[in-house]
Amino acid sequence: MKKHILVVPGDGIGAEVTTVGKQVLEAIAQKFGHEFTYDEALIGHVAIEATGSALPDETLTKMQAADAVLFGAVGHPKYDNDPSAKVRPEQGLLKMRKELGLYANLRPIKLFDELLDASSIKPEILRGADILFFRELTGDVYFGKRERIDEGNTAYDTMIYSKYEVERIVRKAFEAARTRSKKLCSVDKANVLESSRLWREVVQAIAPDYPDVTVEHQFIDAAAMLLIKDPKRFDVVVTGNLFGDILTDEASQIAGSMGMLASASVGDSTGVYEPIHGSAHDITGKGVANPLASILSVALLLEISFGLKEEAQMVIDAVDAALKAGFRTRDIANTNTPSDKILGTDAMGSQILQYLNS
Ligand SMILES: NC(=O)C1=CN([C@@H]2O[C@H](COP(=O)(O)OP(=O)(O)OC[C@H]3O[C@@H](n4cnc5c(N)ncnc54)[C@H](O)[C@@H]3O)[C@@H](O)[C@H]2O)C=CC1
Ligand SMILES: CC(C)CC(=O)C(=O)O
Ligand SMILES: [Mg+2]
Known about the structure:
Blueprint: E1 2-10, H1 13-32, E2 35-40, H2 45-51, H3 57-65, E3 68-73, H4 77-80, H5 89-99, E4 104-110, H6 123-126, E5 130-136, E6 146-149, E7 154-157, H7 163-179, E8 183-188, H8 194-206, E9 214-219, H9 220-229, E10 236-239, H10 241-255, E11 262-266, E12 271-275, H11 292-305, H12 309-324, E13 327-328, E14 341-342, H13 345-357
Parallel strand pairs: 1-2, 1-3, 3-12, 5-10, 8-9, 8-10, 13-14
Antiparallel strand pairs: 4-5, 4-11, 6-7, 11-12
Bound molecules: 1,4-dihydronicotinamide adenine dinucleotide (NAI), 2-OXO-4-methylpentanoic acid and magnesium ion (MG).
The site of 1,4-dihydronicotinamide adenine dinucleotide has 22 residues, from helix 1 and helix 5.
Catalytic activity: (2R,3S)-3-isopropylmalate + NAD(+) = 4-methyl-2-oxopentanoate + CO2 + NADH
Keywords: Amino-acid biosynthesis, Branched-chain amino acid biosynthesis, Cytoplasm, Leucine biosynthesis, Magnesium, Manganese, Metal-binding, NAD, Oxidoreductase
Pfam families: Iso_dh
């Protein structure tokens, strides 16, 4: 199979982990006789420095032309601590999602058995947890009107959803629920927010089209609590952009670390595959970032954009094998397990490549 992949490392550890992700793609190409070609493009802080824009036109054009995008992360402490900055790295990410029509962000939360002890949640609560989040990605408060008024002393952001935006993501979630345990949980704040009441109305209207799927509704605050109390009660979860952003960072603790969670952003055109984590300033440049989220994003890319199920499974098996052999990056190491072999980013990548090349 011939495919063209655009690698967009972005900022901070984004560059460190996508380097490994690309090596994994190439190892798969070699093993299975595929011809993958690659290009790179700028986004985020590095793009602002080079061009003045967080998403240069050239990057967007390359994204539109690619068969898939492997994305790292954006963000720089300079902006986090300067609320007045007008051009910001995160604008590049949001614009990319909007321009490419990436309205569905799939975030699988799957705990590898070997990491049962890496989480701060009790193993008996965690064992068997397997959740698929559908986070709406091009609407909500991230895209509504925002403004400073009252001479800068007051600010507002608008949480806004249209029916069609809710319907398309909810239908995707129902379809996925059909292929899993036929349970869908929709998360909103319909006891307070009008946009959430619209969300719930749409879910209720669509539900009869999927009579084989049992639907439950949870308010975001209760859902956040239940996720930790009893993660196994969830299977497919669908929610808005903001709630999905927050809930999935929380859910990363079910999988052991932010460094374990991959995602697929899909919709109207090229799919973008990205870890759920950010640029992680606190560990940038130290060579300790966990590359497994990027590697598992490669597995999603292979399966979803290219339909290469066997290749995707081999990547997951490689991650499983490395964990079974006791290899850990710092974030998933258990200080009580002396047999853990703690590796840096590249060395963990090498373990995965060794498996794929064997
Ligand atoms: N998709 C994106 O590009 C995202 C960008 N950001 C940006 O990233 C910057 C940092 O934001 P934070 O709130 O610190 O979130 P973050 O996700 O970058 O980091 C949160 C914590 O998780 C750890 N962590 C994250 N990824 C890891 C990995 N692969 N291996 C080991 N540990 C890992 C970090 O060291 C940090 O302690 C900000 O500028 C923010 O705006 C944040 C989230 C998503
Ligand atoms: C930086 C945000 C715009 C994105 C984010 O936190 C995410 O997509 O998980
Ligand atoms: Mg986030």
